[in-house]
Write a structure and sequence with these properties.
heterotrimer; A mainly alpha (about 290); B alpha/beta (about 280); C mainly alpha (about 350); A: about 290 residues; mainly alpha; ABC transporter involved in vitamin B12 uptake, BtuC; two-stranded antiparallel sheet; about 75% helix; B: about 280 residues; alpha/beta; Rossmann fold; six-stranded mixed β-sheet; four-stranded antiparallel β-sheet; 11 helices; about 45% helix; about 20% strand; globular; ABC_transp_permease (chain C); cell membrane (chain C); transmembrane (chain C); High-affinity branched-chain amino acid transport system permease protein LivH (chain C); branched-chain amino acid transmembrane transporter activity (chain C)
Chain lengths: ~290, ~280, ~350
């Protein structure tokens, strides 16, 4: 029982960052119809920016976090403007291949610049964990959860409470109609991609100090983000948030009760199960026939 | 004679929207029947139900006595019910000839038990040659021989329609559904197409078409089925439909374009009698 | 012309080692290139001819490598509940056959599972599958040795009863083996594409509704394509295992799939010669870049090259050159209609 409670606490902490990753990807997928294979690289970029700011520049940890997120935002905007705009109107396969090329180039660039050795980001929190009864949580992880929840809330407010969010939702419904109604779809796409990238970078910047930072860390994170998006339904922000926690739960329980080696396999088994039992339900977009 | 196609109280709902409701009609073998109605009347939906692209929410469609319930489009085609499409009617990147070769997918393979193995071992030569001859013959039959080696997507609209018909005929259907075959065609192309529809019937193929071109419908059909708001409002020979008050009401209610169509339908009567007089 | 070109290329590849002389480094690069090109050929069958991108293609390759290695090495595993499987080593050539079959069976499974959804979902299912398989290879230490790698994999022995046997130990022998298998795979793809089955694939890719309406069974056609494609990738993986004589879970690296994708897209997807041309260029590019660049920097170049090719020659090098030769402007991109989808 104590063990289960510990797993649930871990789930909450991991789930927050997974939700960030998933929301970013599902926004881009849903609004732009782009399968974003740079998402993992942006996660890595966020972690390395955090590392650079804290370890190399000696910036305050809490100041470094917004810097890393802002860096992800700018990176995402640059990718969208330089690489996606020229391919606007092409089919989803072409933009997917472009994103694969960009993702590989980014990941290899990180490897080239920083080398393959994993780096640790020093954290300002006390080493000793917070102990409540049988459950122990490190202060850093608690901060990660709090920050992730705050960012999810911010993303929600942006989508639901601002003019930009309204335009994004309009573009998600139907880009052509939105354009007719005076929405600058080009700018919405840039904003969407930048925002999605910022969320991925935030996830990297938050998990970087918890684990270690290395150039290939984004690969697995990206695949997990895809699992979350499938789980939650295409373009469904709430679904992605919930999906993040479900994946975290599956991983925690899988690692705890099955085998820790297969922790990372859980997401993929979930994808396969979802597609088996609800193949089109998550993708339900009525299309005209004939 | 038992009908070749029976639409048996079929209904389709998209969410709360009723696309067709309780649709009920038969088509007899050898007939040319038109399905008409104002825009949004549910004609294309009805076609999609008959060919398995949509599942009816109620009722069913029977073809040659077999219920089509739960059958996939390709299975329905294999039973002998072929269709054309309103828009995308060709494989645009392939030549006309290759289009028809794709259409002959199911043909000429019966002599072989393992077509895949034959292909790998290069044993399919004889049946391939037979298929090529049939493709050439079909293309000739619809009058596109001169275009056989051109990319189908580059052809004029009317010619693409002919490719679509050749594709459908390649499946050796007993019945052919044509979805707005002459929309966008000029008068002379339409006349050629009407002749083609009659020739298709002479091959022993029953024809059901959805069409907006009223003079054409009046000229070619043995019988007309009229839909409005997803419901059948009239059924009968062209002469009866032309003067049916419910039909006129349905079209007049739809504004000027529909009124013109109705007017054309009226005008067509005069035209028809002139040509009949000429025949006499 | 179109028949002569592949034959000329084959003749050149047969003669190449004679021209190169005894350079084990180049020969090694050619063998690995050849194996990856077989992977690209198999990927092209799905990506190029059916339009379905299998981004987990490396799974079939890796499964082929592991099945072949384990068949020829023998293994002993405890399945729990008192069940033990003890397998004595079999000849490597049998391993090659089993590798092809096992990978094909996995292709069938994935095809059945995911062709109901297609598109982006197919991409993600295939990646997920590859990742699961990699984790199994990494964690089922009793069977695969995990990260410690399977070592001492025997070389392939070819034998004809009454004539004698040859064990392919040298690089030159392996080069010709890879060339032979590659040629066979190319012929299989060529035959398939020219057959009614190939026409069904093309029809589905260009206009699915229309293809269904002429009686083409989408699920069956795509599944068969996936089986054949996976089997070929498995054969390539088997060649890889018996050539390197050692494999570890890194054979499942995502970057290898990306290499194959770049080969296909750059060469020309949906063409017969595209993956071969793309495979030779990108397989041998590391040799050309090695003196000037670190390996990780090379991958930056590949990623950028993929983007540039998509921008400049979206259909790939082979169709692009063919257009140039014919002095004809490139075909305009087909008008995109909203893809009609069957309601299920």
């Amino acid at each position: 029982m104590d063990q289960l409670i510990q797993h649930l606490v871990n789930t909450a902490i991991l789930g927050g960052t997974y939700a960030l990753l998933g929301i970013g990807l599902t926004l881009i997928f849903g609004i732009m119809n782009v399968v974003n294979f740079t998402h993992g690289a942006l996660y890595t970029v966020g972690a390395y920016l955090m590392y650079l700011a804290v370890a190399a520049l000696g910036l305050n940890f809490f100041l470094a976090l917004p810097v890393a997120i802002l860096g992800g935002l700018l990176f995402g905007a640059a990718i969208e403007i330089l690489l996606l705009r020229p391919f606007r109107g092409q089919d989803i396969d072409t933009t997917m291949l472009v994103m694969i090329g960009a993702g590989i180039a980014l990941q290899s660039g990180t490897l080239w610049i920083f080398g393959g050795v994993a780096k640790a980001i020093p954290s300002p929190f006390p080493e000793a964990p917070l102990q409540i009864g049988p459950v122990s949580v490190s202060w850093l992880r608690l901060f990660v959860l709090g920050a992730a929840l705050a960012l999810i809330g911010l993303a929600y407010a942006l989508i639901n409470r601002t003019k930009l969010g309204l335009a994004m939702r309009a573009a998600f419904q139907d880009a052509d109609t939105a354009a007719l109604m005076g929405v600058n779809v080009r700018r919405i796409y840039t904003a969407t991609f930048a925002m999605g990238s910022a969320l991925a970078a935030a996830a990297g910047a938050l998990l970087g100090p918890v684990y270690v930072v290395y150039p290939q860390m984004g690969g697995l994170a990206e695949l997990k983000a895809f699992a979350i998006v499938i789980l939650g339904g295409l373009g469904n922000v709430t679904g992605a948030a919930i999906g993040g926690f479900i994946l975290a739960l599956a991983e925690e329980l899988g690692a705890g009760y099955v085998s820790s080696g297969y922790r990372d396999a859980m997401g993929f088994l979930i994808i396969i199960a979802v597609l088996l039992y609800k193949p089109t339900g998550l993708f339900a977009k009525a299309e005209r026939i004939g | 004679m038992s009908p070749i196609l029976s639409v048996d109280h079929a209904g389709v709902r998209f969410g709360g929207l009723v696309a067709i409701a309780d649709l009920h009609f038969d088509v007899q073998p050898g007939e040319i029947v038109s399905l008409i109605g104002p825009n949004g009347a549910g004609k294309t939906t009805a076609f999609n139900v008959m060919t398995g692209f949509l599942k009816p929410s109620q009722g069913e469609v029977r073809f040659r006595g077999t219920s089509l319930k739960g059958l996939q489009p390709h299975e329905i085609t294999r039973l002998g019910l072929a269709r054309t499409f309103q828009r995308t009617s060709v494989f645009a990147d392939d030549t006309v000839f290759d289009n028809v070769m794709i259409g002959l997918h199911r043909q000429g393979g019966r002599m072989s038990r393992a077509p895949l193995l034959d292909a790998l071992l290069g044993r399919a030569g004889a049946s391939e040659r037979a298929l090529r001859e049939r493709a050439a013959a079909l293309i000739d039959w619809v009058g596109l021989s001169a275009r056989a080696q051109e990319r189908a997507g580059a052809l004029a609209y009317g010619e693409q329609r002919l490719v679509g018909v050749a594709l459908a005929l390649a499946t050796e259907p007993a019945m052919l559904l044509l979805d707005e075959p002459v929309s966008g065609m000029n008068a002379s192309e339409t006349r050629v197409f009407v002749r083609l529809i009659r020739q298709i019937r002479e091959r022993g193929i029953t024809v059901l078409l959805v069409e907006h071109d009223m003079p054409m419908v009046m000229e070619v059909s043995d019988r007309i089925v009229v839909l409005n708001y997803g419901r059948l409002i009239a059924e009968g020979p062209p002469a009866a439909i032309r003067s049916d008050p419910a039909v006129i009401e349905a079209y007049l209610g739809q504004g000027s374009a529909a009124r013109r169509a109705a007017a054309e339908a009226q005008g067509c009567e005069a035209q028809g009698s002139v040509s009949e007089a000429a025949h006499a | 012309m179109s028949r002569l070109l592949p034959l000329a290329l084959l003749a050149a590849l047969v003669a190449l080692p004679l021209a190169l002389g005894p350079s084990p480094y180049l020969l090694n690069a050619l063998i690995v290139t050849g194996i990856l090109t077989i992977g690209a050929l198999s990927l092209n069958l799905l990506l190029g001819f059916t339009g379905q991108l299998s981004l987990g293609h490396i799974a079939f390759f890796g499964i082929g490598a592991y099945v072949s290695a384990l068949t020829s090495l023998g293994f002993e595993v405890d399945l729990g509940f008192g069940y033990r499987i003890v397998h004595e080593p079999w000849p490597a050539a049998v391993g090659f056959g089993l590798a092809t079959l096992a990978a094909g069976a996995c292709g069938w499974l994935i095809g059945r599972l995911s062709f109901r959804v297609r598109g982006a979902y197919f991409v993600i299912v295939t990646i997920s599958f590859a990742e699961v398989v990699r984790l199994v290879a990494l964690n089922w230490v009793e069977l695969t040795q995990g990260p410690l790698a399977l070592t001492g994999i025997p070389a392939i022995t070819l034998g004809l009863p009454g004539i004698g046997t040859w064990t392919l130990r040298t690089k030159l022998q392996n080069y010709y083996l890879v060339l032979a298998v590659g040629t066979l795979c190319w012929l299989v793809v060529a035959r398939l594409v020219g057959s009614r089955f190939g026409r069904a694939m093309r029809g589905l890719k260009e206009n699915e509704s229309l293809a269904l309406s002429v009686g083409i069974n989408a699920t069956r056609t795509l599944t068969v394509a996936a089986v054949i494609s996976a089997a070929m990738a498995g054969a390539a993986g088997s060649l890889y295992a018996h050539y390197l004589r050692i494999i570890d879970p890194d054979v499942f690296a995502f970057t290898t799939t990306v290499s194959m994708v770049i080969m296909v897209v750059a060469g020309g997807k949906g063409t017969l010669m595209g993956p071969v041309v793309g495979g030779l260029i990108f397989g041998l590019l590391p040799v050309a870049l090695r003196p000037v660049m670190a390996p990780e920097a090379q991958w930056i170049v590949y990623g950028l090259v993929l983007i540039v090719i998509l921008f400049v020659m979206p259909r790939g090098i082979v169709p692009g050159l063919a257009d140039l030769v014919r002095r004809r402007p490139a075909r305009p991109a087909p008008v995109l209609e909203p893809s009609p989808v069957v309601q299920r």
